[in-house]
Amino acid sequence: MSRKIIGRGTWLDRVAYRLVEREKSLGRSLDLVLTESGIAASGIPHIGNLSDPVRAFGVTLALRGLGYNSEMALFSDDMDGLRSVPAGLPKELEEYLLRPVSRIPDPYGCHPSYAHHMISMMTDVLDRIGVEYRLYSAHEVYGSGRLASIAAEILSNSAVIGEAIKSLVGQEKFTAQLPYYPVCDSCGRIYTAKALGFDRDNWRVSYVCSDIVVKRRLHRGCGHEGWSDLRAGNGKLPWKVEFAARWKLLDVRFEAYGKDLIDSVRVNDWVSRNVLKYEPPLHVKYEHFIDVSGKKFSKSVGNVFTPNEWLKYAPPATLLLLMYKRSVGARIISPKMIPRLWDEFEELEDVYFGKIKVSDEKQRAKLRGLYEYIHLLKTPEKPRCHAPYGLLADIVQFAPPERFREFVEKRLQRYGYKVDDYLLEKSERVRLYLEAFGALERGRVSAKLSEAERRAIESLLNRVSTATSGEEVQAAIFEEARKAGISPPDFFSKLYLILLGRPSGPRLGPYLYDIGTQRLREALASAGT
Q1: Which in 98, 125, 193, 389 has the greatest CB count within 10 A?
Q2: In this structure, are residues 114 and 107 in contact, taking their beta carbons and an 8 Å threshold?
């Protein structure tokens, strides 16, 4: 009995199906199913920041695939205060600490504000890879008064919300002050202004600008006492309640979150249900992307690997593959992933176009679906010409700059490959990668060798070292396989696996003749038994 395949068979389709069934059980309209992602505007966006909107849009695509109208809302947190100066940015920004990032000048002078500069770095990448979104700015939403009535509802219930926050996550802060951050009219900072009272009739919050510790640093308040009008946009809700306000305002049905926001989501779900009377959206929890040291990517620390950097060395589909291949488990993100992911992308393409056969129906559907999602459902009409990344790395390091493409094309043709513009472009990207990051880290070979295979390779090494042509090496491979009692196709496949990590590859004789014996010796030493 065949197992049911939902949509295109991926985790995105399962989430979309759960979402639709949940909305049906709640009796809510499915005329437009809105997914949402928030984006920070406090520093240079890294790959972890990109994962939230990309995955939210993936759920939107899956919903469309199930026959529902869906869009993604992208909410810019540009009313947040600048808590610290991110590594690599001008130290002159120190004078703007705790100001809303939408009210800080762009240090590079090319955008209306600091926030505009940082958000544009994200939206430029989203536009480049084809992600569709409807952009909302916290600065504009608060400034227009659209959130005023919801904020008033929250502030009118501040006592019960403060106790709920204390009960749910153990934070007592909002039992002593209102869940609202005014911007001080005197000094322009946001977190120093402590909200003390709410005048519902006049839509305003009283505050006093007082001392506060942010990131272990004491910031002195200016002492100013004043009022903040909810309708004027001179303040914002804290994250502990703001998500709920956004969900109700926009009618959000899906929003994922990272594990650092677990407490905020628990509180917002409670506020949404119990205060705003709005059933919160379906959530999926994601693990963080982390750097090679095991630390979460952080704008302030400066261990930022940006999406634009990735796209310098690899196409958008590889970046989307990183985001869509699975939804759980923390992953170490490094430029060193690019070669493996590019090869994995090409294997998916071969599955999609039937060049690689997958017998299991569910697995085949999942891989084909994943290929469609990493192209945002706009798949090419035919496969491109492929060559392993490691092979191209071997070729391009010897290519003369003045005739790079000609050299690469002739060498690939010599190895039995058809060559198209895609493959030549890949070669250019491989060259850029090697210039930036050095030689490939080949790692330990996963393939295991029998004693007969190991002896045959050792004998082949001696023949490669004395050969005078690639054709001589090609013949030697057949001869050594037969002498060892090994099927020649199996021997070729094992050589490809230990050299390139794939069971197939270039015409092997000319390739081995060109690279010499050292690489094969290293692969032999690395292979298991």
Answers
A1: 193
A2: yes
User: Does the pLDDT value for residue 25 go beyond 80?
Assistant: yes
Q: Is residue 279 part of a domain?
A: no
Give a yes or no: residue 200 inside a domain. yes
Domain containing 206 equals: 180-236
300 and 212: one domain? Answer: no
Does residue 393 share a domain with residue 373? no
Instruction: For residue range 174-233, list pLDDT tens digits in order.
Output: 999 999 999 999 999 999 999 999 999 999 999 999 999 999 999 999 999 999 999 999
* Residues in CB range of 452: below 8 A, 6 or more apart: 484, 485, 486
Phi, psi angle pair for 318, to nearest 5°: -70, -35
Compute the C-alpha angle 389/391/395, nearest 5°: 115
Report whether 434 contacts 393 (CB < 8 A): yes
- Say how many domains are in the chain: 4
Query: Residue 528: its pLDDT value, please?
Result: 65
Instruction: Report yes or no: 250 and 136 within 8 Å, Cβ to Cβ.
Output: yes
Q: Is 308 exposed, middle or buried (0-12, 13-18, 19+ CB in 10 A)?
A: middle
* 323 and 398 housed in the same domain: no
Looking at the structure, do residues 22 and 127 belong to the same domain, yes or no? yes
- Residue 448's pLDDT is what? 81
Phi (first) and psi of residue 295, to 5 degrees? -95, 145
- Say if residue 10 is in the same domain as residue 128: yes
Give the per-residue pLDDT at 435: 94
DSSP structure string for 386-430: ---HHHHHHHHTT--GGGHHHHHHHHHHHTT----HHHHHHHHHH
